[in-house]
Prior knowledge:
Elements: H1 2-27, H2 31-40, H3 48-65, H4 73-95, H5 103-131, H6 134-151, H7 153-163, H8 171-191, H9 194-246, H10 248-260
Amino acid sequence: xxxxxxxxxxxxxxxxxxxxxxxxxxxxxxxxxxxxxxxxxxxxxxxxxxxxxxxxxxxxxxxxxxxxxxxxxxxxxxxxxxxxxxxxxxxxxxxxxxxxxxxxxxxxxxxxxxxxxxxxxxxxxxxxxxxxxxxxxxxxxxxxxxxxxxxxxxxxxxxxxxxxxxxxxxxxxxxxxxxxxxxxxxxxxxxxxxxxxxxxxxxxxxxxxxxxxxxxxxxxxxxxxxxxxxxxxxxxxxxxxxxxxxxxxxxxxxxxxxxxx
Length: 261
């Protein structure tokens, strides 16, 4: 009996650890992107659409989870941290467009302004969800943000394709997001009925799938870019050879240089 209890406690501790790790991953989700933007003082290569759509989903979701904060504390915490870093990145989009004086103060000021707007959006969402039925609140506060989060990938995928460049996006975002989704799925399947867990895990599985699509697109873009560069190098080399053939004096001068060497 004691062995059974200790085994049950170990499983419960493991499940709780998975939930905590998922929360930490989502709290840190956008920090690699903010750091990358700061290191090059540019947001080039990152889609503003990705950040705006994800931020909107997070602000609405925060309002929904605040309806029962005791049960959804970790979800509310991760959405709040995610929203604050989203505000920072949006401020980076605004400030890094051209070199400016007092860069840090302006970045801090716009970040605080966007945080205030996020707070107002979450508050309005909370008041709205408090006034409607539970079904409507679930549909608009839980399902819609999940759909928006998936939709947010498409602007970044298009950014990769249209610019043929993936260097502006931090794949640390993908690493944290996928890890958070995987650990949260483990938490759900270990703690709930499989049918209920599948329903709750569906958005996380969709997010993992979209990250796979994002990575495949990035690899394809890198492959196309390398082939393009190779073709241009071959073309350039062929052009130089043709010029040499058409200019005997150039060939003679090159031969003289080789003999001298």
